[in-house]
TrEMBL record:
One Gene Ontology MF term: NAD binding
Superkingdom of the organism of origin: Bacteria
Residue ranges of domain NADH:ubiquinone oxidoreductase 30kDa subunit in the record: 23-142
Family per record: In the C-terminal section; belongs to the complex I 49 kDa subunit family.
Ranges of residues in domain NADH-quinone oxidoreductase subunit D: 293-538
Record's subcellular location: Cell inner membrane; Cell membrane
One Gene Ontology cellular component: plasma membrane
EC numbers: 7.1.1.-
Membrane topology: Peripheral membrane protein
Keywords tagged on the record: Cell membrane, Membrane, Multifunctional enzyme, NAD, Quinone, Translocase, Transport
Name of the protein: NADH-quinone oxidoreductase subunit D
Catalysed reactions, semicolon-separated: a quinone + NADH + 5 H(+)(in) = a quinol + NAD(+) + 4 H(+)(out)
InterPro entries: NADH_Q_OxRdtase_suD, NADH_quin_OxRdtase_su_C/D-like, NADH_UbQ_OxRdtase_30kDa_su, NADH_UbQ_OxRdtase_CS, NDH1_su_D/H, NiFe-Hase_large
Amino acid sequence: MIEEKIRQWCAATTVEEAGERVVVVPDRDVAEVCRRLHDDAEEPMDFMRDLVAADGDGRLSVFYQLESTRTGGRVTLRTDTDGREDPFLPSVCRIWKTAEIKEREAYDFFGIRFTGHPDMRRLYLREDWAGYPLRKDYDMDSNPLNMENEENADVTEEYDLRADGTIERRENVVFRPDDFIVNIGPQHPSTHGVLRMRTSLDGEMVKKIDPILGYIHRGIEKMNESLTYPQTLALTDRLDYLSAHQSRHALCMCIEQAAGIEVSERAQYIRTIMDELQRIDSHLLFYSCLAMDMGALTPFFYGFREREMILDIFEDTTGGRLIQNYNVIGGVQADLHPDFVRKTKEFIVHLRSIIHEYHDIFTKSVIARTRLKGVGLLSREDAISLGCTGGTGRASGWANDVRKHHPYAMYGKVDFKEITYTHGDAFDRYMVRMDEIMESCRIIEQLIDNVPEGEFRVKTKPILKLPEGVFTASVEASRGEFGVFLISRGDKTPYRLHYRSTGLPLVHAMDTVCRGGKIADLIAIGGTMDFVIPDIDR
């Protein structure tokens, strides 16, 4: 139905390879097609899940992964640039706000400029970086180590497409000379990693936030292109380390679907239980760090007390605590430890008996409630447009849980409540995650005594070659939708392997939710957004 509409609007074609159906739209029509899809009366594609650039066959391409929050329907578009030299495409950032930061990523790594985009600066790399490192013809020796301090640009470029087809370039101002700018980070405990937010202040009020990323960028997506599929798994653990099980689960699912590998029911049960333990682990650390960011030290130790029990359970079975390499293609690395079921059930009983202490000491505190309630408001419409999935979006009334709306593993067979709140403030973002701890306990309780017998891992070839095509998978990670976008050319290594960062939209949203608030609010808001920096930088 969606594809038929697109073909009525323009000369679109559908690529029908293995995996994802991709609708190819001419570059001159892509912005108008996107606008019509967004505004469609029956199935509005109001959520841009991701925007992914790729290099291939003498052209550069951009894929748009779109979803309707009304129906759950999805579509993937592709448009191609006209050649590789000085490529331009029309921006869609006035349709979906999240496209603003994701088009900057496409420019940073592939050199694609977007007409109508207000800020065509690098996103992760230095402003003086030479070349575009995710292009296939990139010279790896073109950027020797540069120890000079980087000067951040206060002026950016915008490009407009004239009626005669030529490009007009003009300058836009990021910060004016009379703006008072302070740096929050990168060495700051409340940025939860090496993130820098250039913050313009009027007294103690926030006027604008410009996030500076890339301090821990490791080129993971580039590294994937030279690794076999089993080797790529190791790098997912180094993204969001509090979603290590879930991130690896998504990549394994994508590869298994592409290769036609059927995973045993036992492995599916184990993966689901591990994902939920990981979610509790993450939310406990969220509670601990938010409380500490706001000056409450005792709750910090409460969260670590129970989190340590989860890490002990993980270590028995997986051998790891922070870094988890348990999921593998075809199942899991090893069977459950003999004490796993007992310890997990004991932990849930303990957590249920102790969770009131968390609320007694922090949730009910007049200081915490005053600093969180009515602070950092994010509307449902902005949450969707900015792509703020997970607990951040659900606190604004947007039901976006991948486990509910696109079930995978055992999530379609368990009963749990999707936690949503309506105010969209820092307090609701906090409460969503605290309530989700209890829902994760419910999910585990339904599975833990019913793990079926069978093999925990099916045999797979040490070297996999996937069929040609585009393959995708997504899971509900601890901070929202974590997606895998894979382009295969039939080789033993991926042609392009991209990860949808759960945290990139959250950092991008900081400017929206902090403007007009106090600089002290920025710290509390950042804590409730719950971003993890290695996941953003990749």
